[in-house]
Amino acid sequence: MTWTDTGRATLVIIEANGNGCSNSDTDVIRIDKFPSNIFNILNVGGRSYKFSVIDSLFNSYQWDLGNGTIVNEPTVFYDYNNDYPTLSISLKVTNTLGCIDIFDTVLSINHHTSGIYNHVNIDSVNIFPDPFSNQINVYSNLNSNTTFSIAMYDALGREMITPQKWRRTQGIYLDEVVPDPKKLNPGLYLICLTINEKTIIYKVVHAN
Questions:
Q1: Which residues make Cβ contacts (< 8 Å) with residue 13, sequence separation at least 6?
Q2: More confidently predicted of 137 and 156
């Protein structure tokens, strides 16, 4: 049976035997609606992709990235090592009642695919040092007034700093990104610059 409306419904189960006798049981159930559009997939350059959940009403998330990689996080940054004509991508979600649903799509991986790098009102950006130890410097040369934000994530999409956002005039800026050292482990991290709603993602490596 399919319900078209959310809310509560009374479910009655009737059992009958061959002698014409019957017994019934009644229970009240809650009906939750799963959103039809639950995730976004963004190419950020070459074979690099960002997989993110739109609706955060679920208790758990499990991405199947189509090549045998399973990630239990709502947001994932992932680099594919090879081109794939078609990959079946799926997201399994579980709500507070333990109900499970799976959403899927098909993705084509091609290393010539370009990310969102144009029309961001910026002359140059430099992220240094790389590898980094405790701090990352973000140098930017803006060629017009713009909104500018910085965020940092680990390879599983976990937030490493509180995102910072400014309204900036044309000019040169140097920002310091200092993640919590207790959260840092050797490996790959992503610096996300959002400039007038366009995002550029840089990969940096943390080394001891």
A1: 24, 25, 26, 27
A2: 137
